[in-house]
Amino acid sequence: FQTWFGALFGATAVGCIGLLPIFIVPNEQTKKDKPYLELLLSVAVGSQLADVFLHLLPEAFAHPNASSVNIGLWTLTGLFVFFLIEQIFPDDEDDSSNETLKQNQLSKNENEILMLAERKIKVNYIFFLLIIQKQKSQI
Asked: How far apart are CA 95 and CA 101, in angstroms?
């Protein structure tokens, strides 16, 4: 009984550590706190992945009754399921900000081209006025 309770408690504690950044940085919407939340969530995910790849998988492969093929297939299945979940529920925020950035950059380039064209028109107009004035003075 003690072994199961300790294992269950330990697994629950490790799983809940991933939720800790939500309580530390309460509001994700503010731009000031967002980098901290992303950093803390990255650390939590990294520690859980390290636990899986450095502790749980080697222990599973070392178990005498375990089939390496089954363990490998279940590992690949889990990775594939998480990949599908990521594809089904994409994080569009980054894509939209990149698109907005591209549009802003394009707008800046278009504005620069328009300003250059406007300058050329002004310079040509000034030259045109100078030529007309010179011709009038010669008459």
From this structure: 10
